[in-house]
Design brief:
The structure holds two protein chains of two kinds. Chain A is of the alpha/beta class. Chain A folds into four domains: 311 residues, TIM Barrel, CATH 3.20.20; 136 residues, no CATH class; 55 residues, pyruvate carboxylase f1077a mutant fold, CATH 3.10.600; 75 residues, OB fold (Dihydrolipoamide Acetyltransferase, E2P) (Beta Barrel). Chain A has 29 helices and 21 strands. In chain A, the strands form four sheets. Chain A has an eight-stranded parallel β-barrel, surrounded by five helices. Chain A has a four-stranded antiparallel β-sheet with strand order 10-11-12-13, with no helix packed on it. Chain A has a four-stranded antiparallel β-sheet with strand order 14-21-19-16, with no helix packed on it. In chain A, 45% of the residues are buried. Chain B is of the alpha+beta class. Chain B folds into three domains: 99 residues, Rossmann fold; 71 residues, ATP-grasp fold, A domain (Dna Ligase, domain 1); 252 residues, ATP-grasp fold, B domain (D-amino Acid Aminotransferase, Chain A, domain 1). In chain B, helix 4 links the parallel strand 4 and strand 5. In chain B, helix 4 runs antiparallel to helix 5 and helix 12 packs antiparallel against helix 13. The chains are: A alpha/beta, B alpha+beta. Chains A and B meet through helix 29, strand 10, strand 11, strand 12 and strand 13 of A and helix 8 and helix 16 of B.
Chain lengths: 698, 485
C-alpha cells in the first residue's frame, strides 16, 4: 500500500491559470480537482443546462451488486470519465469502503490513487455518514477529524439518517477548512410528517452550518426512490424560492420504476446536478441510465452538459466485464413500486435479500417489507444507513420470531394487528384490547442493541420526536422509565468521549509487529477487526486483488494450460496452471509456472490437520525470541522452574540454543509462573509460547 | 622432505568443504567427504569423489568425532586430511591423531596449534616477541577474580569474557556493567565447554570503536614466512564477522607495513607453517594496534586475500603439507585489487535468529567481479545443528568503490534465496550506509545502527509480490471461490 498524499490547499491555486484557460477551450471538462468550492459552485451555476454525477463506480455497485465491483474493472471506465464533462464521479464511501477491505480486499486509498492517475480531470466524490463515516457506529469527534482530514476526496456528500444537522458539524468543518467541496445532504422520503416546512428547516440549518450557499451543493438523497413527480417538483421549488442561487443535486434511486420522470420534474424545478450510471449497469435499485437521461432532458429542452460519445464508450465498456458479476446480483429481481410503502433503500436491497436467502427466509420477505412499512410509521426516521439496518434487523427479527413460534398464521396475525393499530386506530395504544396491548408490549423485546441506542438518543435526535411510550415499554420492559432517563438530546459529537489515538496506534503496531502506515491506521480506526484481516490478507497475497482479472480472482485457473497475464511494478508476469493434485490428508499440491519457472504450492484444505503451536500474545505470555532448542528450563542457580514458582525480574527462566549459541531468556518482571508450555529438548518456533506468567504485585 | 598427497579427506561440511574440494579438483587430487546423517544429501557430499557417513546430527558424534574421521580416511584410502575451518581445525589432539595414523595433516603443526590455541599462552608469547597486547587477565575461574582486576587496574567497562580455546564468537560474552557479570560468566563458560570441550576463559578490556584487522600469513617447513597483506573484519554482529574486505580502509601504508611485519615477526618466532592469521584490534584514534590471537587455520574470509593477490591459499597449504617450499618471495606479492566479502547466513536479518529449512529456490549472483563460495544447492536443506553460514559472496574491483558497487549489484539484482531467511537485506543496508561507504565504522557499527539499517530494508520486490499473487491463484484454484463469493 503506497501513501496517498493529501494535496495541501495552497498548492492547488497554482493550477488555477491553466484551469481557467481550459474552461475557455472546447473541452467539456468544466470543473476539476484543485478548484476551490466557490469556483466549482460558480461553474455549475453558469452552466446553461444541467450536469451529471456518475455513481457508476460506487452506488450502482452497492445497489445491485453488493459492492462487489472491483477496481480492476471499474478503472476501465476512468479514461471515459476523464473527458466526459461530469460534475463528479462517486467512487468512494458508503459501504464500498467496508466491503472493499472485507471482501474485495482493496483499500479505498489505493482505489483513489489509481483513479486519480487515470482520471485527473474528475472530481472524486464520497458518500459519508455524519458521525458513522464509513462504519456503523458513531465515532468520537477526534477520530472524525483525524480520518476526514486524511482522505483525498474532492466532493463530500454527507448525510444524517436523522437529518440531525448538528451531527454534520465536524465533517463540514474539516472538509471546508481543507478547501474541498462539502455537500450537505437531506435524507428524503415521502411521509405525512416530511413536509416542505420540515425540509426547509433542515436546509436552513445546513446553510447556517456552512456559512451561506456559495461554497456548497445541496443534495436531496431519495435513497429508496419514492419521490413522485409532483412531490419532488414541489420540494425543490420550495427550496429554490427561498434560496434561488443554491445549487441542488437530486439523488434518486429507481426502485419504484418512476425515476426518469421524477428527474425531469426536479430539473424543471431548478435542480442542477443529477445522479446517473451507465445504462449497462442499471438493474432495479440503483440509478437512472445516463444515455436515457441525456436523451429525455434534451428532448424536453434542458441542455445536459455531457460528452455523449464518451458516455457511450463507458456504457459499452461495462458490457465487457459486467457478466463476471452475475453471482453478486440481488436475488430479488425486478422493480418494486411497493418501495413507496416499505421504503427499503436501494443500497440495502441486495444485502438484505442475500441475508434472507442465506438464512432461508426469502419466503418471508413480503411480510417483512409490510412490517417495515408499518414500523416506520411508528418509529419515524429515514431508512438509510444506519437507520435502514436498524429497520431491517428489527422487522426481520419480529417476523422471523413469529414464523418460528407460530408459523405463517402467526405472521399474518401480527401484520394484521399492526396494520389495524397503525391504519385504523391511529396508533392509539389505549384503543387496543388488553390482549393486543400485551402482545405489542412484547413486540420490540428482542430488538437489536442499535434499535435501543436509537431510542436512547445515542445517534442524535429523531427528526420529529421520540416514539410513543409503549415502544419504550415494549423495548426495555417494565423498568423502561429508568432507561428513559438515559435518553440524550445532545449530538453524539458532544456525547462520545475522545479515543486515545496514540494508544490505538500502539495497539495496532503491537498486533502487526511493525509500525502501521497512515492508511492502515485509518482502516483500523474505521473497522478494527476487518482491517486487521485485510492487512493480513494483503501481506500474504500482495496485490492479487488489484492485478487479477475477475474470473481468475473468483475461481482461479481451472484446467492445465490455463494462464493469467498481469503487470506488477511495471513488469510482465504470467501464471500458468500445470496441475492440481488430488487431496491427500487435507493437502492439495498445485503446480504452476510463474514466469516459466515451475513452482509447487501446498494448499491446506479445510480438512487439513492443524498442528497447534501456541503463540505468545500479550504481556503475560512469554514467547521465544528465536527458533531454537530448549536445553534448560530454569537456571543453574535455582534448577528447573515449574508452574507456581516465583521468579525475579531479570532472572534467567529458560535457555534456548540455536546453532551453538545460547540465548538466555529472563523474566520481564517479578512473576509467578502459571504454566510452563514447553518441555526440555523441544524445538520451538520464534514467537512460540514458553510461559504463561502472572505479575507479582509488590 | 617431500610427501605425496594422493587423496584428501575434508573433515568438514558446507562452505569450507566445498571450497577445499575445488582446489583439490584443480590439482586432480581426489577427495573424500564425510557427512552426518542429516547431511546425507548435502552439497559437499556430491562434490567429493567418495563420501563416508560418520555419525548422527550432533557434531560431537560426527564432525567432531575424531576417530570416525580418521577411520573414514583410512577406509577411503585418503592419505591426508584438511580440516577446513571450525570443528576440528584448531584441535591439536586431532592433528596429532592424524599424524599418528600415518596421514598428512594439511595445516600448521600440532605444536603451533597447541601454542596458539591457548589464548593466554599466545598472549604471553606475543608479549615476548614485542607484539603489543590488550590489558587483561587469564585463566579466570570465578567472577571475584574479574572484580578484583577491574578494581586494581582501574579498568573501565565494557570487558570481554572469552573462551581460552575459542574462536568464531562462541564463548565470547561482552559485559557492559558489573551486574551482568555473573550471568555472562556462566554463559561464556558453558558455551566454551559446549563448543570446545574446555571451559577455561580469559577476560580483556574491550576496546570501544575498535577495528578488527588481521594479517594473512603463509609459512613453509623451510622457514619462509610470508604475509599476504591484511584484511579488515570490523563489521561483526554478536562478535561474528559478517563483512570483510581487503585491503583495510583504516590503515595508512606505513601502518600497513608495520602491522604486516609485526605479524610475520611473531609467526616466524613460533615457527609457523601452512596458512594462518594474526588478528589485531586497531584503535583508530590512538593509531595503535594490539595483538588479539593467532588463528591456526584457513579462515572463512581467506577468499578476499586470494582475490587481491591472485593466489590460492588452499593450494599453498597443499604444497606446504607436501613439504614443498613456497614458490614466491615477499616482494613478489603485489595486491592490485580491492575485494569485499559478505557472509550469507541463514538468519533473520532483523533478529539474527537462525532460520533453517529447505532452500526452495536459489539464484546465485553472476556477472563481472563476483566470486561465490557456496555450501548448498537449490532444494538442499539447512539443518539446525550447525553453523548458519551457507554462502560467501565476494566481489572485487579496481578500488573500494568498485568492489562495493559490484556487491550492491550482486545482492540487489542477482541473488535470490527462497525457503529460508538470510542476512542479505541487512548486508545490503550496511554496504549502502554512508558511514560504511566512507569507511567509518567500528565493531559496534551494526548494534549502533540497527534500527536505521532495518529501515533501509527494501520492502517489496516484484518477484516476491508476484509469488504472493501466485499463492492466491494456487489456493483459489484448488479450493474454489471464497466463502463470500
Amino acid at each position: 500500500m503506497k501513501k496517498t498524499k493529501v494535496k495541501p490547499k495552497d498548492t492547488q491555486n497554482n493550477s488555477k491559470m491553466c484551469i481557467i484557460s481550459e474552461l475557455c477551450s472546447m473541452s467539456p471538462v468544466f470543473v476539476k480537482p484543485g478548484m476551490s468550492p466557490k469556483e466549482i459552485v460558480s461553474a455549475v451555476r453558469s452552466l446553461k443546462g444541467v450536469c451529471l454525477t456518475s455513481v457508476g463506480m460506487r452506488d450502482a455497485g452497492q445497489s445491485d451488486f453488493k459492492n462487489r465491483h472491483r477496481i480492476y474493472d471499474l478503472k476501465t471506465l476512468a479514461p471515459y470519465y476523464n473527458n466526459m464533462g461530469l460534475f463528479s464521479a462517486e467512487t468512494h464511501g458508503g459501504a464500498r469502503w467496508h466491503v472493499g477491505i472485507m471482501n474485495r480486499r482493496e483499500d479505498p486509498f489505493e482505489e483513489c490513487q489509481i483513479l486519480r492517475e487515470l482520471m485527473p480531470n474528475v472530481l472524486l466524490q464520497t458518500l459519508i455518514r455524519e458521525t458513522n463515516l464509513w462504519g456503523y457506529r458513531p465515532y468520537p469527534k477526534n477520530v472524525i477529524e483525524y480520518v476526514v482530514s486524511r482522505v483525498d476526496i474532492d466532493v463530500w456528500r454527507c448525510f444524517s439518517f436523522l437529518n440531525d444537522v448538528r451531527n454534520m458539524r465536524t465533517v463540514a468543518e474539516v472538509v471546508m477548512k481543507r478547501g474541498r467541496l462539502f455537500e450537505p445532504t437531506i435524507s428524503f422520503t415521502v411521509a405525512d410528517w416530511t413536509t416542505n416546512e420540515y425540509y426547509l428547516k433542515v436546509v436552513d440549518d445546513m446553510v447556517d452550518l456552512c456559512g451561506g450557499i456559495d461554497e456548497i451543493v445541496l443534495c436531496i438523497k431519495d435513497m429508496a426512490g419514492v419521490g413522485n413527480v409532483t412531490r419532488i417538483f414541489n420540494i425543490i421549488d420550495a427550496i429554490k424560492q427561498k434560496y434561488p442561487e443554491l445549487v441542488i443535486n437530486y439523488h434518486r434511486h429507481i426502485t419504484d420504476g418512476l425515476a426518469i420522470p421524477a428527474l425531469l420534474s426536479a430539473a424543471k424545478a431548478g435542480a442542477k446536478i443529477f445522479d446517473v450510471q451507465e445504462d449497462s449497469l442499471v438493474r432495479f435499485y440503483g440509478h437512472s441510465p445516463i444515455l436515457s437521461v441525456q436523451a429525455i432532458f434534451e428532448e424536453s429542452g434542458i441542455p445536459v452538459h455531457i460528452n455523449r460519445a464518451e458516455a457511450e464508450g463507458a456504457v459499452q465498456r461495462v458490457r465487457e466485464w459486467i457478466n463476471y458479476y452475475d453471482w453478486a446480483e440481488s436475488p430479488f429481481k425486478g422493480l418494486d413500486h411497493n418501495v413507496t410503502h416499505h421504503k427499503m433503500p436501494g443500497g440495502a436491497f441486495p444485502s438484505s435479500f442475500e441475508q434472507a436467502q442465506k438464512a432461508e427466509f426469502l419466503h418471508l420477505m413480503p411480510y417483512i417489507l409490510k412490517m417495515m412499512s408499518l414500523y416506520n410509521k411508528v418509529v419515524k426516521y429515514f431508512d438509510v444507513t444506519p437507520g435502514s439496518q436498524i429497520t431491517w434487523v428489527t422487522c426481520s427479527g419480529i417476523i422471523n420470531k413469529y414464523a418460528k413460534e407460530k408459523g405463517d398464521a402467526g405472521v399474518r396475525h401480527i401484520i394484521d394487528l399492526m396494520a389495524r393499530f397503525v391504519e385504523q386506530k391511529g396508533q392509539e395504544f389505549e384503543a387496543l384490547t388488553e390482549d393486543e396491548q400485551i402482545e405489542l408490549l412484547e413486540l420490540f423485546r428482542n430488538a437489536p442493541g442499535d434499535f435501543k441506542n436509537l431510542l436512547l438518543g445515542n445517534y442524535g435526535k429523531l427528526p420529529v420526536g421520540w416514539p410513543a411510550e409503549w415502544v419504550y415499554r415494549s423495548t426495555f420492559g417494565e423498568d423502561y422509565r429508568e432507561r428513559l432517563k438515559e435518553r440524550k438530546e445532545t449530538s453524539p459529537l458532544d456525547a462520545i468521549e475522545k479515543d486515545d489515538l496514540d494508544k490505538l496506534r500502539n495497539d495496532l503496531s503491537n498486533t502487526l509487529g511493525r509500525e502501521p502506515n497512515e492508511e492502515e491506521f485509518i482502516l483500523f480506526l474505521m473497522h478494527p477487526k476487518d482491517a486487521l484481516e485485510f492487512i493480513e490478507f494483503r501481506e500474504k497475497y500482495g496485490d492479487a486483488p488489484l492485478v487479477l482479472p475477475t474470473d481468475v480472482w473468483r475461481e482461479g485457473l481451472k484446467k492445465p494450460g490455463d494462464r493469467v497475464d498481469f503487470e506488477l511494478f511495471g513488469k510482465p508476469y504470467t501464471i500458468e496452471l500445470v496441475s492440481i493434485g488430488a487431496e491427500h490428508e487435507g493437502v492439495i499440491h498445485v503446480v504452476m509456472k510463474v514466469n516459466n519457472k515451475t513452482r509447487v504450492y501446498k494448499v491446506d484444505t479445510p480438512r487439513a490437520k492443524k498442528s497447534e503451536i501456541r503463540m505468545a500474545k500479550g504481556s503475560n505470555e512469554i514467547g521465544s525470541p528465536i527458533n531454537g532448542n530448549v536445553w534448560r528450563i530454569g537456571n543453574t542457580k535455582r534448577g528447573a522452574i515449574k508452574a507456581g514458582d516465583i521468579v525475579q525480574r531479570g532472572e534467567e527462566i529458560i535457555n534456548l540454543e540455536a546453532m551453538k549459541m545460547e540465548n538466555a531468556i529472563v523474566a520481564p518482571f517479578d512473576a509467578q509462573i502459571v504454566e510452563v508450555c514447553v518441555k526440555l529438548n523441544d524445538t520451538v518456533q520464534e514467537g512460540q509460547l514458553l510461559f504463561v506468567v502472572e505479575q507479582v504485585q509488590k | 622432505m617431500n610427501r605425496e598427497i594422493k587423496k584428501v579427506l575434508v573433515a568438514n561440511r558446507g562452505v569450507p568443504a566445498v571450497r577445499i574440494m575445488h582446489t583439490c579438483r584443480d590439482r586432480r587430487i581426489p577427495t573424500t567427504a564425510v557427512y552426518s546423517t542429516p547431511d546425507r544429501l548435502s552439497h559437499h557430499v556430491f562434490m567429493a569423489d567418495t563420501a563416508v557417513h560418520i555419525g548422527d546430527a550432533p557434531p560431537i558424534e560426527s564432525y567432531l568425532n575424531m576417530q570416525r574421521i580418521i577411520d573414514a580416511a583410512i577406509a577411503s584410502k585418503a592419505d591426508a586430511i584438511h580440516p577446513g575451518w571450525g570443528f576440528l581445525a584448531e584441535n591439536e589432539k586431532f592433528a596429532q591423531m592424524v599424524i599418528d595414523a600415518g596421514l598428512t595433516w594439511i595445516g600448521p603443526s600440532q605444536r603451533v596449534i597447541k601454542l596458539m590455541g591457548d589464548k593466554i599462552e599466545a598472549k604471553e608469547i606475543a608479549k615476548k616477541a614485542n607484539v603489543p597486547t590488550i590489558p587483561g587477565i587469564s585463566k579466570v575461574s570465578n567472577t571475584d577474580q574479574i572484580r578484583k582486576w577491574v578494581k586494581d587496574e582501574k579498568i573501565a567497562l565494557p570487558i570481554m569474557i572469552k573462551a581460552s580455546a575459542g574462536g568464531g564468537g562462541k564463548g565470547m560474552v561482552k559485559v557492559e556493567n558489573i551486574e551482568q557479570l555473573d550471568q555472562a560468566f556462566a554463559q561464556a563458560c558453558s558455551e566454551a565447554k559446549k563448543s570446545f570441550g574446555d571451559d577455561t576463559v580469559l577476560v580483556e578490556k574491550y576496546i570501544e570503536k575498535g577495528r578488527h584487522i588481521e594479517v594473512q600469513i603463509v609459512g613453509d617447513e623451510q622457514g619462509n614466512v610470508i604475509h599476504l597483506f591484511e584484511r579488515e573484519c570490523t563489521l561483526q554482529r554478536r562478535n561474528q564477522k559478517i563483512i570483510e574486505e581487503a585491503p583495510s580502509p583504516s590503515l595508512t601504508d606505513d601502518l600497513r607495513g608495520e602491522i604486516c611485519f609485526t605479524a610475520v615477526r611473531l609467526m616466524r618466532e613460533i615457527g609457523y607453517t601452512s596458512a594462518g592469521t594474526v588478528e589485531f584490534i586497531f584503535d583508530v584514534l590512538a593509531k595503535k594496534f594490539y595483538f588479539l590471537e593467532v588463528n591456526t587455520r584457513l579462515q572463512v574470509e581467506h577468499g578476499i586475500t586470494e582475490l587481491i593477490t591472485g593466489l590460492d591459499i588452499v593450494d599453498l597449504m597443499l604444497d606446504v603439507a607436501m613439504g614443498k617450499k613456497i614458490p614466491f618471495r615477499q616482494a613478489d606479492i603485489r595486491p592490485n585489487r580491492w575485494a569485499l566479502e559478505v557472509r550469507l547466513n541463514a538468519e533473520d536479518p532483523k533478529t539474527f535468529s537462525p532460520s533453517f529449512g529447505t532452500i526452495t529456490r536459489l539464484e546465485i549472483p553472476q556477472g563481472p567481479g563476483v566470486r561465490i563460495s557456496s555450501g548448498i544447492y537449490e532444494g538442499a536443506s539447512i539443518p539446525p545443528y550447525y553453523d548458519s553460514l551457507f554462502m560467501l559472496l565476494m566481489t572485487a574491483g579496481a578500488d573500494r568503490e568498485d568492489a562495493v558497487r559490484t556487491m550492491d549489484r550482486a545482492l540487489s539484482r542477482n541473488l535470490r534465496v527462497e525457503g529460508i531467511k538470510t542476512l542479505a537485506p541487512l548486508l545490503l543496508s550496511i554496504i549502502r550506509h554512508p558511514a560504511f561507504i566512507k569507511g567509518e565504522f567500528s565493531t559496534r557499527f551494526i548494534e549502533e545502527h540497527m534500527d536505521e539499517l532495518i529501515s533501509m530494508f527494501k520492502e517489496k520486490t516484484g518477484e516476491d509480490e508476484a509469488l504472493k499473487v501466485a499463492r492466491y491463484v494456487a489456493e483459489i484454484s484448488a479450493l474454489g471461490p471464497q466463502k463470500w463469493m
